User: Fold these one by one.
Assistant:
Number 1:
Amino acid sequence: MVTRTALTYIAGLTSLALVGQGGAVTPLEWGTGPLTVSALPRVVYTAHRGGAREVPENSMSGLVAAWKRGTAQVLDLDTRMLRDGTLVVMHDAALNRTTYTGGPVHALDRRDWQGIRLRPRAALPGSWPPERPPTLAEVLDRFGGRVVLTVEAKDPRSLGSLAAMIRERGLTRSVLVNSNRPATALRTHRMGLLSQLWRSARQMRTDRPEGWRPFVNVLDVDHRARDRDLVRAVRSGIPRVWAHTVVTPAQRDRALALGCDGIITDAPGRLGRAGRRH
């Protein structure tokens, strides 16, 4: 087999690649598996819910648009569990805010989900036709290994199913499982998955994040926190500290100046481009 070396650009990451006779490109950092968290750059940009100020949040078309744009190296999404155990991509416990219908998400099953349609916000740029919110399986199959994903488990009882889906696709080093609960982060770690723990500015006033160092891979901090609380998080020894949910250059620049090495943003198309100079 004849192999040549080439440069490839994937999800905002420029890297060397091996190109075989059939033209297939395999980034060197993948090895024999998918793109992993360890291959992320020093400063990371995450498209929060796909970039909720630029695309319909938690939609397949929005995630695809954010991925193709290449200004975010991580795609963030939320999951909830239907009554039959199906994991779907949805932030709220109710359908009212983001779809054309209402009622609790957990009251539906997979068949019901086929009839749900997202209602794009009028303020979004561009034209976005109504579409069905994806299932988690569809997102993992579309993006798994091609970009790092952050999946927030809104229902802690879904963690076992979520872990099984990640494992069976070989994505245990490529998907961060996010939660606001340290106990869920610890459980995630014990399952052999990568854990991401988010904390509000209020919680950060009394947090002692150094205690989470053994089991948290990414600490996801509120950019509105006091300087002293952000610095304490950065100095905790947790490998990565990312600030949420950033929407302006000033917010981004403050978080980076205080030592955060990741920006979680609703506007990755704007902030991600500008942020590449850091």
Note: Confidence is low (pLDDT under 50) at residues 1-31, 274-278.
Number 2:
Amino acid sequence: MAIAKAERLMNLALCLLGTRRPLTKRELRSSIEAYIEAGSDDSFNRMFERDKDDLRELGLVIETVDGIDADVGYLARRDSNRLPPITLDAEEAAALGLAAKIWQQARLAGAASGALQKLRAAGMPLASDEDFDAGQPHSALEPRIPAHEAAFEPLMLACRDRRPVLFDYRKSNAARPEQRQVEPWILECWRGHWYVAGWDRERKAERVFRLSRITGKVRSRQGAFTAPVPDHVTVRETVESWAGETATGTARIKLRAEHGYPLRARALTVRELGDGWDELEIPNGHGLDAWLVEFGPDVVVLEPAELRADVVDRLRAVAKG
């Protein structure tokens, strides 16, 4: 339904922008397929008035002109709807190029590519251009934000359209997924993983979900959001607390050599133990046990005893299924 409406709005906008004279509702109805299929006059009139209001909310300037035969006409003059010259600094251009790369695995890849081509045609240098700045050497590293999870696109559309969703989610310490009803607010990438924040209807609280733990399809639900959308959503802060980033002390772990590089990146000290193991001292905070479980047999908690017990409990819960 959302795609059909977007196509209808685009066709109406093209008709109003492409005409040299005002078009009556009768002429617009005969020119746009969705209006032809509207059925009754009342149905068409309601649809047309909604579409006209939606286009105006999107910023299209639509003029209403009284005709000689008392028929009202509509048009959108190009000079009234022309954008001002686009100027982007280097950081803004780089951000646009990086944002477009997110859609490489998504259905909107073509639209993103077309948008970049139009900006380049207008003379905008973007981060992906080889000749971004002929006077400056290029970095050998190119930033990328992958979006491989199948849940990414339906959740992105649900966030945009404010639609509740239903999906099966497997927690790190659970053997089986649980069904969640969520009102999604925002998607955010942190350390190579995508997360969605929103309102969990059953738990009646804000929750953050990692997309790679969503199993099966994300299904859209009817109806509006039941909880207000906050102005600021702390996705990264929440995930950091789960990963023990908000440290309240330190922990000692044994880590298999050449494994667990995310843990090594946060280590305060590293000592070789021999036999293929190293000892690390890492920050310890809320949620560290859930993060350590993900490394499986490559990690052994030495201390504190409370953290070791929490990790063992989580592993036993997974083993029991």
Note: The longest strand covers residues 178-190.
Number 3:
Amino acid sequence: MAIAKAERLMNLALCLLGTRRPLSKRELRGSIEAYLEAGSDDSFNRMFERDKDDLRELGLVIATVENLDGETGYLARRDSNRLPAITLDGEEAAALGLAAKVWQQARLAGAASGALQKLRAAGMPEAEDSYEAHHSALEPRIPVHEAAFEPLMLACRDRRPVVFDYRKANAARPGQRHVEPWTLECWRGHWYLAGWDRDRGAERVFRLSRITGRVRSRAGSFTAPVPDVVTVRETVETWAGETATRSARIRLRTGCGYPLRSRAQSIRELGEGWDELEIPYGHGLDAWLVEFGPDVVVLEPADLRADVVERLRAVAKG
């Protein structure tokens, strides 16, 4: 069975790489013997979708194109599936080795380990890991708990539009979003998706923990240009509340809110179990303060206090 599947995947990859125009499911079924032997259309469709996902997991970039008749076709462009010669010095190899240790999620850990093995087989130097002596005491980790992470990671990689239900912090119910995903960023322990919101015609950032239900892929190509990595990261930073333009004064319960205390510009004891903090105030601070619930009271500015109260009321309404 394993040999038959490997042969089927190889035949599908060769068909997609060898064509100059997108091939429909019907054409692919007529070109690959294993698909011809499928008992029904449903059986073929399930087999094809699994095979397509497996090839993408192996690194093959498969483009999805819609022709003039509205029929979806597939191809793997050679220029998108060919890497230039890779040359790394010792320091670069050490950085890759450290990055491969970051992921806690098993699927990513396996992919990172496999990538390192391929690079070393291609001649990448075995760098001396300056962190090796300390890794038993302290190891870098990036937690990934959101179910939306993996499908969005694959959609970013394959440049595939997605649709999902998203609950804003001040909304009682989630709303549907149609998004062209650009990249995922981890900021202050939370994952964010940066991309183009088709419904609003503008770039947006979505916190993965607020995505409800399943992330679903959509056929077709992106309609908006993808900005460079630096621009996307600046967008994530801004929408995550890291670009401070003013200061805010809050009351914080003693012994609570250590992330807020670490960013405070000043801290003054008020007594009776409360402290007063002055903290940087930028976009997204209201959503962050809501997470601390009754341990935080906003003193000023008034617009920040109003935003926090509105969010808390929305949460209370359910």
Note: The two ends are 50 Å apart (CA to CA).
Number 4:
Amino acid sequence: MSTKALRLGTRRSRLAMAQSGQVADAVRQVTGRPVELVEITTYGDTSREHLAQIGGTGVFVTALRDALLRGEVDFAVHSLKDLPTTQPAELVLAAIPEREDPRDVIVARDALKFTDLPRGARIGTGSPRRMAQLNAYARSHGLDIEAVPIRGNVDTRIGFVRDGELDAVVLAAAGLRRIGRIDEVTDFLSVDTVLPAPGQGALAIECAAADADLIAALGTLDDPLTRAAVTAERSLLAALEAGCSAPVGALADLLVDGQIVKEMRLRGVVGTTDGSRTVQLSTTGPVPQTHDRATALGRELAAEMLAQGAAGLMGERAQ
């Protein structure tokens, strides 16, 4: 391969730059080539509308993919949960590195846990998925909360709590860990309480499908178990015909006996944002060894969820 610098396309946010910087370091090690970050502004970065209003699907991704297709960058790093489930033929996910903690977390005033928040507590989130599950949990446990839609970066969101405008905000553990702010978390939400977004905590490294040398080099960063898990989760999302901003949670985790990975469990949930109705199911089976098997796992669980009425809980489905 050439010794010319590789151009890595990234969003400009602090989190995106941190994620891309970590990937750039890894790519330098495996290729021996310099890597330069190319900052790209996406529609999701400039729009002030809530993600549910603008659709969510692809708003943080399209500009990066356009730069790849035009040859302005050699590869791009995405938060996998932001990626549409349809993959362009001209591009390939060359690597999905080992996943960070997929859980959601609470940053609350006075170091409060979620279940210790006062009656009527205002909790900020930009995610219909989080709203649906938090409200469902509150309903079933006699809690009184108000989920408030918010936008903004980590500083903005935590600032709402610091300023007393909100009692708490919900964020992704992975993002806070990657920017070195995990110590600000006051409560980690169990996946039994809130299932994460499909692909949450994982990164996707994407490049042109025609660049075989780069695909091979980036492929050394791939984690097969993470790829199998997120493929199953995203297959479920696709089969539900739901976009990135739909109230859908999914997590494929590994069931381990000692040091041996025995099985994979896929859980999915769909709910109305007020928490009044949810469909939550799971399935367990052998760890998928192929892309097709991981995809089938997601499709099968989605079919069961649709049979239980999931489609009617999602509002407008993705087209």
Note: The chain has ten helices and 13 strands.
